[in-house]
């Protein structure tokens, strides 16, 4: 009964906040800051947030530190339009969704380097393993960003900047402990030096995490190392950043059974498995040089390199345990059948050997930027090379694709009070499948203290190297998925009242989506002779995003946001049907207090029900309450805590997996 009452009160609070027009941006400014004072670096034109023709959210290091987050996923949950399927214990399986699109349509960029894997088009489980303490800034640009970033940006771009040097020395060591045997140590050093006629800023960061899982044998170990240096002088900026992340998690084995008979639909359960593991090592390096040719003209060269190695193994341990048959004629292996109530043996489905993968990219981007009175222009070219290798129990794959790109982007304001017009064009040429041209046009107009904006953009997602070259199911006849998106919005910043708010509606459609088609004859498939990747699906999404903040006074702040998403998929030969694993309703409400040595944030996260992957069974919605607090004992020592799911609600994002329940950590920072 208590859980139902909590859920009802939270659902009632969201409409009340909407009525008050105080929907909160995920931003958390330290004061009543105007939106026009926030620069969006991922726009590559240093646009201010108030003049963007699309919606965006900026999350600064201060907000991440106040939340005491253990997982980057939890940082991004507070962003409109973003949701996750996260299952298992800390550091395990993680799938991002944005505006009704899957993870291959969300581009992740770290320090200017694209992190999406050439083999899969997404980042896998990286977001559950990326240490949030290593981040200086996150910029979430919603809507197509293909003109700026190319493939895989139909839903948007999440641009992450890791820690950089500070003007004053900043040295911190931290230790944490908590639920599930959570143990973490981290250290950072940030400082700057005067060198010749410029300033050199440096940063070092290291962390190590060790945690158990929800079931026996589960657990995760994660090590992160980062370093960066930036030198800024009158005419030149030059710098680099390198990162290394090594993760191993061990997960219980999941078995699922679906049935079309009345009264019995889905059954799923995890059984502890002593030897199943997932290893991942991700490395990235970027370097840049920017030359200010004149006061309003500059050129920049960015170089990037990434490498990701993954290895998954599950040796066969035989009998793992027993489960109770939930209905008559129940089977886990489709060979032996049992009646309801019988004890059913649960055998390991592992096999000898491992599945191994190696992804590498090389990236070069040259751009020329010009700013005049009332306008900004950007033009450039990119070179991209992606390699994917696979070996082990799922066969061999050796694929490569190269891309050459030309792009132009700009904005112009008509007069001192006229509309701001924005437009961009990009042409990509791939070695494997050919050419793709995309574009974007948009406008903003300020009317009093309200700004109206709109945008139309085309986008695409290139077939990944596994879809092209998988030894059994790949097809080199694939063409890219093609998308187009329209969005309209309004935003307002009332600095005197401490209110910022924004509302956006969008409609998007993707054609030629890539699917696995089991009806295609395929002699390479020795298990039936059919099935391979092909173009054929369609996807359409539309929805509403509301967000904003209300700074009540110097100590208190209210924030909230709400997203409605209507996403439908049309499988080949079928009608449109609701997209699986996408919730129609999602929202956040939070209250923050900060005064003197104490800061406290209480928030509620709500999501409505969604289809499981079956398209038949529902994952129930939930409301989760979290608390984060930090207290400065002295100038050098701070104590902090984070408690998630305070009321122990049943939080499920994948059927069959054990829910996390109430979870918490405590820690201390020492600055010297």
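^ structure tokens above, recovered residues below v
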């Amino acid at each position: 009964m208590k859980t139902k009452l909590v859920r009802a009160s939270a659902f009632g609070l969201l409409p009340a906040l909407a009525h008050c027009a105080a929907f909160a941006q995920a931003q958390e400014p330290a004061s009543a800051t105007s939106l026009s004072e926030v620069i969006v670096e991922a726009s590559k034109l240093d646009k201010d947030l108030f003049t963007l023709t699309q919606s965006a959210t900026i999350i600064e290091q201060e907000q991440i530190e106040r939340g005491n987050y253990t997982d980057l996923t939890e940082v991004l949950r507070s962003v409109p339009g973003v949701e996750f399927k996260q299952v298992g214990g800390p550091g395990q399986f993680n799938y991002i969704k944005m505006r009704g699109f899957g993870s291959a349509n969300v581009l992740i960029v770290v320090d200017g380097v694209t992190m999406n894997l050439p083999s899969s088009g997404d980042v896998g489980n990286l977001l559950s393993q990326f240490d949030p303490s290593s981040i200086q800034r996150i910029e979430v640009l919603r809507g197509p960003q293909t003109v700026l970033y190319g493939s895989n940006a139909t839903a948007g771009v999440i641009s992450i900047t890791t820690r950089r040097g500070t003007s004053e020395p900043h040295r911190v060591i931290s230790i944490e402990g908590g639920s599930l045997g959570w143990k973490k140590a981290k250290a950072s050093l940030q400082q700057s030096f005067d060198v010749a006629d410029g300033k050199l800023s440096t940063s070092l960061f290291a962390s190590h995490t060790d945690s158990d899982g929800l079931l026996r044998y589960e657990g995760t170990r994660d090590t992160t190392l980062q370093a960066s240096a930036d030198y800024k002088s009158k005419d030149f900026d030059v710098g680099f950043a390198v990162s290394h992340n090594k993760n191993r998690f061990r997960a219980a084995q999941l078995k699922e059974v679906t049935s079309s008979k009345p009264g019995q639909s889905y059954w799923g359960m995890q059984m502890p498995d002593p030897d199943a593991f997932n290893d991942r090592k991700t490395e990235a390096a970027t370097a840049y040089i920017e030359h200010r040719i004149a006061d309003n003209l500059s050129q920049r060269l960015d170089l990037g390199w990434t490498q990701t190695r993954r290895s998954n193994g599950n040796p066969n341990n035989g009998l793992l345990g027993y489960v109770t048959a939930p209905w008559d004629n129940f089977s886990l292996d489709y060979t032996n059948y049992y009646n309801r109530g019988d004890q059913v043996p649960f055998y390991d489905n592992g096999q000898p050997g491992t599945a191994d993968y190696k992804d590498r990219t090389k990236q070069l981007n040259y751009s020329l930027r010009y700013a005049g009175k009332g306008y900004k222009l950007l033009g450039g070219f990119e070179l991209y090379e992606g390699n994917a290798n696979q070996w082990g129990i799922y066969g061999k794959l050796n694929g490569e694709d190269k891309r050459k790109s030309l792009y132009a982007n700009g904005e112009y304001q008509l007069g001192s009070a006229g509309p701001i017009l924005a437009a961009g064009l990009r042409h990509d040429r791939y070695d494997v499948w050919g050419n793709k041209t995309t574009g974007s046009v948009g406008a903003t107009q300020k009317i009093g203290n309200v700004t109206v904006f709109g945008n139309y953009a085309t986008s695409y997602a290139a077939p990944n190297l596994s879809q092209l070259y998988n030894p059994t199911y790949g097809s080199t006849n694939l063409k890219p998925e093609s998308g187009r998106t329209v969005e309209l919005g309004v935003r307002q910043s009332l600095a005197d009242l401490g209110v910022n708010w924004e509302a956006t509606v969008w409609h998007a459609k993707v054609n030629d989506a890539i699917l696995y088609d089991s009806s295609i004859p395929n002699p390479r498939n020795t298990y039936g002779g059919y099935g391979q990747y092909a173009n054929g699906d369609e996807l359409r999404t539309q929805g509403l995003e509301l967000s904003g903040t209300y700074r009540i006074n110097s100590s208190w702040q209210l924030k909230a946001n709400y997203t409605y998403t209507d996403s439908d998929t049309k499988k080949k030969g079928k009608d449109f049907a609701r997209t699986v694993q996408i919730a129609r309703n999602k929202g956040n409400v939070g209250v923050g207090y900060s005064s003197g040595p104490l800061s406290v944030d209480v928030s509620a996260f709500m999501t409505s029900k969604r289809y499981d992957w079956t398209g038949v069974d529902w994952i129930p919605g939930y409301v989760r309450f979290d608390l984060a607090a930090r207290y400065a004992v002295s100038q050098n020592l701070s104590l902090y805590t984070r408690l998630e799911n305070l009321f122990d609600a049943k939080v499920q994002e994948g059927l069959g997996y054990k829910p996390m329940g109430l979870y918490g950590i405590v820690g201390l920072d020492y600055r010297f």
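The longest helix spans residues 2-19.
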